Amino acid sequence: MARVAVTAFGSDRPGMVAGVTGVLMDHGANIEDSAMTILGGHFAMMLLVEVPGDQEVAALEAALAAGVADLGLSVAVRPVADPGGATEDEGHVDWADGPCAWSVSVHGADQPGIVYRVTRLLAEHGANVADLSTRVVASPTQAAYVLLLRVTLAPSTDGEALADELAGLAAALGVEVHIRPDDADIL
Is 137 found in the same domain as 63? Predict the structure, then answer.
């Protein structure tokens, strides 16, 4: 079996998830990880898929493109290397005690640079962003920008120092920032 990343993007309409996943199923693919969202009225989907070893990437991409053409989706398929052999120098950290998950939320007046400045500060503390979403939420009086992140930190990270620096950044940006330990997904 081989692993590939599949992306799909297009103007949102019903049937897009079924269209993509139906073609994948027809080609013997197994979906391992996936995320899908609507961004400004556009459908965006990313999948990490295990495919039979004899499945060629170009052939799967062509089959997907043909299978979802009537939905107006653009698709791409790329091979994915196994991250298991990556070293810390290559950006993959293997913490002996396991990473600690944290949720970070930011909200306030929309302005350029919020995502960059928050994620830069988190990176300076060794945080790895596992999930990120942003939205502009309109109210009758004003629009608010909302940034939600799920990050992992090494157990040795000084959470109090990070929270203090985030509070300083929040004051500089004129936004509110909250950080708290994240509960694990419970099934």
Answer: no
Half-sphere exposure of 25 (CA within 13 A, CB side): 6
Q: Name the residue with tokens 């007046």.
A: 109
The confidence score (pLDDT) of residue 95 equals 47
Indicate whether 62 and 130 sit together in one domain: no
Tell me the residue type at 144: A
Tens-place pLDDT, residues 42-98: 999 999 999 998 889 999 999 999 999 999 999 999 999 877 655 445 555 554 456
The boundaries of the domain holding residue 65 are 2-82
- Give the C-alpha separation, 122 to 129, whole Å: 8
| Tokens coding 141 | 């009086």
Q: Is the pLDDT of residue 159 over 90?
A: no
The span from the CA of 74 to the CA of 18, in Å, is 15
